[in-house]
């Protein structure tokens, strides 16, 4: 069994309602994110690949375009623009298209934060 990951980066703005740091969080502010899509499986003996990384990259491009340089509060179906919701939203966007989809990880390097979503069944 193997795991294979591909990453895209996006920069986006949002607001958040929080119990702490409420005022600054409600102000529009931005973050730089990385999103990693991980597939799990066994390589096809002929191709040596679980999935072609180029194909994975193409499938991820639609999600990247919907997030990069967008105001996340306005992204359809996202809800409060947390790392949890971002990883679940990317999962839903790819589910059914990416064979062996195992998890979606959203990272915010500036603050050392990571959120990993394994899908609704996990
Ligand atoms: N469970 C979660 N908690 C928080 C999330 C989240 O996605 N999931 N997100 C935020 C905010 O986006 C917030 O802007 C980050 O704030 P904070 O952690 O207080 O850190 P900084 O303001 O120091 O972060 P910078 O990225 O350096 O601006 C809060 N909580
Ligand atoms: Zn924020």
Automatic annotation (TrEMBL):
Binds 1 zinc ion per subunit. It is an enzyme of class 4 (lyase). Its EC number is 4.-.-.-. The keyword Nucleotide-binding does not apply. This is 6-carboxy-5,6,7,8-tetrahydropterin synthase. It comes from Oceanibaculum indicum P24. Catalyzes the conversion of 7,8-dihydroneopterin triphosphate (H2NTP) to 6-carboxy-5,6,7,8-tetrahydropterin (CPH4) and acetaldehyde. GO terms for biological process: tRNA queuosine(34) biosynthetic process. It comes from the Bacteria. Keywords: Lyase, Metal-binding, Queuosine biosynthesis, Zinc.
């Amino acid at each position: 069994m193997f795991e294979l990951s591909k990453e895209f980066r996006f920069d986006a703005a949002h607001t958040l309602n929080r119990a702490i740091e409420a005022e600054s969080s409600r102000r529009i502010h931005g973050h730089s994110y990385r999103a990693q899509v991980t597939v799990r499986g066994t390589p096809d003996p002929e191709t040596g690949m679980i999935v072609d990384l180029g194909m994975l990259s193409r499938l991820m491009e639609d999600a990247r375009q919907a997030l990069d340089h967008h105001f996340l509060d306005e992204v359809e179906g996202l809800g409060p623009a947390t790392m949890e919701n971002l990883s679940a939203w990317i999962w839903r966007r790819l589910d059914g298209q990416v064979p062996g989809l195992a998890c979606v990880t959203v990272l915010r390097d500036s603050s050392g934060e990571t959120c990993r979503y394994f899908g609704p069944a996990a």
